[in-house]
Amino acid sequence: MTDEASRLDTIWRQLWRPRPVWMTGVMLFCFYMTFIYMPFDMFVKPVEQDEEVWFGFVLHGWYAKATEPLHWAIYAAGAWGFYHMRAWMTPWAALYTMQVAIGMLVFSGTDPRGAGWVPGLIHAAVFTGLASALWFGRHHFGSQH
């Protein structure tokens, strides 16, 4: 096997290493956000159309553009951490996902585009479940830091 083929085989095996299906889904979502959506958001989307949501509050325009690198860094860290199954993912992925759960509730209940408090509670419950799975799924991650 050539060095290139060996390297691709290693990448492929690392990508599909044994991990729960839901965790692979989260990893693939992080890859999508890191390599497709966030570059589009930062470099293609006009400032006038830009929005970023933090804890359920929507930032617009230049305020949104200013926080995009932080979102990009979070997704890149998630992609790297899930790909290599790093131990530090256990607290940080769970905490970030819990922030998303809170954001879902706040956005749904306060933003005119939100679906309301009851659907917000349902969305928040789903993300709280994912946060719990990440928190208690530490045995899936390695001990390396």
Key attributes of the depicted protein:
145 residues; mainly alpha; 2 strands; 5 helices; two-stranded antiparallel sheet; flat
Polypeptide structure, described:
The chain is mostly helical. The protein has one domain. The chain is 70% helix and 6% strand. It is built from five helices and two strands, in the order ααββααα. A two-stranded antiparallel ribbon has the order 1-2. Helix 2 runs antiparallel to helix 3 and helix 4 runs antiparallel to helix 5 (117-136). The mean pLDDT is 91.
Topology:
Layout (H helix, E strand, L loop, with lengths): L2 H13 L5 H23 L7 E4 L2 E4 H24 L4 H22 L6 H20 L9
Antiparallel strand pairs: 1-2
Helix pairs in contact: 2-3, 4-5
Summarize the structure.
The chain is mainly alpha-helical.
Poorly predicted runs are none
Could you tell me the radius of gyration in angstroms? Answer: 17 Å
Q: Termini separation (Å)?
A: 31 Å
Taken as a percent bin, the fraction of beta residues is 5-15%
Largest β sheet strand count, sense and barrel closure: 2 strands, antiparallel
Total discrete domains: 1
Number of strands: 2
Report the helical percentage: over 70%
